[in-house]
Structures are given as C-alpha cells and as structure tokens.
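Here is my example:
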Amino acid sequence: MDTNLELLRKMRIAGAYADAGLKVLSKNSLFDEYFQGAEFILPASYFLGNVPDFFSVVRGEREALSANTSLMVNGRKQVFALKLFMDKDSRFLFTAHNLTVEGNSELNLYGSDEPFIPKYLHNSAPMLIIDAGQSGRILDANDAACSFYGYTKSEMESLTVDQINTLGPEAIKKEMSLAVLSKRNYFNFKHRLKNGTVKDVEVYSSAVPIKGKTLLFSIVIDASEKKMYEVLLADLNARINERVEAEKMSCIVTTSKYQNLFEMSQDAVIIMEMDENGKLNFADVNRAACSLFGYSKEELMKKRSRELVYDDEEFKEYLQRQRLALDSIGVHEGRLKIVRADGKILTAEIMVRQNFMLGKPVVIAVVRDITERLNREKELMEKDMLVIQQKRMVEMGGLLSAAVHQMKQPLTAISLVAEVMTSEPENLEESREILKTQVQYLNETLTEFRNYFSSAQENSVFHLVEQVDKVINIAKPLLAVNGITVNVSGDENLTIYGLSGDFKQIMMNLVMNSVDVIRERGINNGAIDINVFRSGNHAVVNFSDNGGGIEESLLPDEIFKPFFSTKGDKGTGIGLSIVRSMAEKMGGHVKAENSLSGAVFTLALNLT
C-alpha cells in the first residue's frame, strides 16, 4: 500500500488513490471500513446533501476540493471532512476524515479549553469555526487562517464574520442560513485582511451541530489570482470574438480582392485541391493560365497536370523533387517543358506553394513562360563567348610575342648543336641529349598554349595550384620580358569540381591585368603573389601584386563593370568583368581591394 495511505491510516483518516475517472486504484483499510465495495469516489448514494463536484479537480478548474458534509455510512448519519487533490505523482488522492465518533462529533469540545480544529489541520488551507447564531463570532482559526488574514490567534477569536466579510450584516446572515440549512456549501466572498487588503475568496462551509449550537466549519481558499485570470479570460474572449468578427469581414473583403488580383495577374495561376484519393485536381485557373495553355477555362479545368507537360519522365523527376520540397519547406521552384493546345512546346518556370484558402488546404502553382528569356540568354551567352574568344586572341598575340622571344634561345641552341654534330661526331650522344631537352621544352610550351586556348568544357575535379602553375607557365615568357616574378604558394591538395578552363581564364585575366599595370607604371622588380587555401566551405585564391593599387573611387564594384577600362583606348574593359561573371558562374565571388603595395583580388569558390 502507498506510504501516504499508511500515514492516513495512522491518523485515522480514510484514504484512496484514484485515476482521472475517479476509479479507485488503491486504498487503506479505513476506506474499506467506511465505504465497503466502493469502486469510485464517491457514489452519490452516500451523500445526504449535494454531491461535491469532484471532477472540477480532475478537469484542473481548481487545485483541491474540500467539503464538510453528512454521509450515510454503515447505516448511520455521520459527518465527514472530505478532500480531493492531485499528488506529486499526478494521481488523485481522496481523504475522508470522520468527524463523528460513536454518534458524537469530535468538535463537541465547545466550551472547553481545547481547540475546535485538530492540530494536524493547522498547516492546511485556512479554516474557521464560526458561531452560526446571532453573533457570527469566530470561535477558532487554524494557523493557516491566522497567516492569511494577518491576525494572531487571539485576535482572530475576538472577531465576528462581518468584520472580515465585506457584505452587510443582513446579507451575511442570509448566506450563513443557506449553509446551516445545507442548501449551499460553496460561496464567493470578498474578505478584508488586517492590513486593509480585500481579497476574493472561495468558502466551503458545512453546518456542525454541537451541544445545542450550530457551528459552521469553513475552509477559505484565496481566489484573487483566479478572479484576476477570470477577468483576463473574459477580456480575452471578448477580444477574440471581436477578432473573429473582424476576420469574417476581412475574409469577405479579401475574397473580393483575391478574385481581382487572381484574374489581373500576368502569370498563369492554377489552384489545386486534393481529392479523397490523394490526387490533385484543378479548383480554379485565371485568364493568364487559359491564354498560356491555349484552352478555355472550362477545357482547362478538366485537364490533369500530366496532360499539360511535354516529357513524362521529366515530369516524374520534377514531381519527386516537388514532393520533397513541399514536405520540408512548403514551397518548390523548378522548370518544365509544357505543351499548348496547338502543340507548341514552351519552357515554363513554375513555383508551387502549399497554402490555406477559406479554411481549406490547397496547392497554388504560378506558371511563367520563360522561352523567350532563355533564347535571349542563349544569344547573350554566345555573344559573351565571342567576346571572350576575341580577348583570348588578344592575349594570345601578347603571349606569342613574348613566347617567340623566349623560344629564340632554344632554337639558337638547336642550331649550334646541329653544327657541332657534323664537326664533332665523337660528341654525338651528348649533342643528342641537348637537342632532346630543347625540343621537349619547345613542345611543352606549345602544348600549354594549345590547352589554354582549347580549355575543357566538361566539369571535373581539378587541383587549384596545378592549374595556377599551368597559367604561369603559359605567361612565363611575357612575365620574363617585363621582369615580373611570380610566387605561388598554399595547399597543393585543394581541389574543386567545375570547369578548369573557366578557372584558368580567371587567373590569366588577373595575371594579364597585373602585367599591364606594372608595365604601364614603369615599376621595376614587379611581383605577383598567389596564395591558395581553404576557408570554411570555400576554396580561396588570394591574388596580389605590387603595381600600386586601384583608384579608390573604383572600389569595390566599379572596376568590375563591363567595358570599363583604366587603359583608355588600349583596353577592352572586359577583363575584370569576365573574372566576376566566371566566378559567379562557378558558384563563387570575387572582390577587389588595395594593400600598401598594390591591388588584391580575393576569389572564393564553393567547395560543395
């Protein structure tokens, strides 16, 4: 048996634990003695008056219920102090203290020096014993009552009810008579404390006859907070009702506005609802949707999504991506080829969103024809590629000029060795090795040129430092002619996935830009430093030179604008513009700034 029930047994109090249906889970022996066979707390047949509302505790409307009432137990009318509350284990503890012993009340000590209220109840809720006669004098008060009202025990026992109850004397007598006659044992009063504070209280009063007098045993519960919450709740309910009415009116207005916006939209809008089989059906379409697909509204409403797309396999893949996106974030954007009623195939950009409309879940699809836009983008891309190719040709001219100068040395060496081979046949093997070395150098140089001007057009994994070295090898003759040294450092194992040709184009543009600046400004001992490293989810290439820097008015973005050049008629103005566009194409970005000695370009590319 539970420890609490054992303690109650020693105190001669019947006790039982019950579930949320007030069915008895466990009980002590006194409970069995008083309420034999009772499976619930407590059958109405036991009560001689009103049955306390035990379920108000279960519903959480009050923390505890206390009541003094008369019960018919074992064939006799007996007075019990009943209490129900939830314990720390979230079970409901019911106690029944028998105030009647062998037909006499335990409160029959009226007139003696002993207290009316037993000691073990002094730390419970505030309790009062009141003379229900003309005086309404307080005969006894437990410690909790003294603490609540702010009086000492002797002060409490010198008071009458009308000194703590704010009702008038006649009203108090009327309420007390209801308790005496057992017509009502629950009251809401305002009680005045010693310090003058008035508090809302709930009072549970039961009549107890003792030696010819009728006393009221009252339990007082502070309801101030409850009253405050009731006021707040009432105010909240009023506000909610106002909001509901406002929402109703807003809904009427919104519906009208929605219809206007729906029909005025330049984009095709399709609203779909899900049927009982989980399939989406068209619930509404606007005029733009009818125009896009080439059907009347009646015809389009009868269509299913699958009938409006060009490729079934593409549509299946699209739907898989859409379901994943809707389940995770509630919105999806994608592209599909759609078919008009006249058979024309268009490319559409589609945004699908889950929403609620007039209280019902719907899926809204906004469809936009982007066929012309894609054609324009393709034309621009082709023009851009032409411009880039032209720039490469300009670069090649400068590089070849420097390369020819650089190649004169190995060609001169080959010529000399050829003469030596005829005049000194004994050194034939040594001469062959020299020729082989010089030819290999020329071949590597030409291969680097060919690879640069026919860059790979397929994505692949490549090492950044390796590609930087290839660019520097191509530009080496031009760098040597202008007396510029290049230092490449950093993580040689760092790789990214993308077009290596685009990356080399970025690096070559930066190198050529630095060469032009260093040469034009007549800077001796020109230097370029390139450092490659990882930072978070980015591969970073830090490119700097000692060319004197960029004019501050051109930072941070003016320097990257198309056809802007600091070289006058000598420049094309697309070098750094290509750097930025290619960086963005690779999923990265580039920024420009100045150091103490020159310009610094930082290229960051996504690793994922």
Remarks:
- Confidence is low (pLDDT under 50) at residues 102-114, 568-573.
- Residues 371-423 form the longest helix (53 residues).
- The two ends are 64 Å apart (CA to CA).
- Residues 3-105 form a domain with the Beta-Lactamase fold (CATH 3.30.450.20).
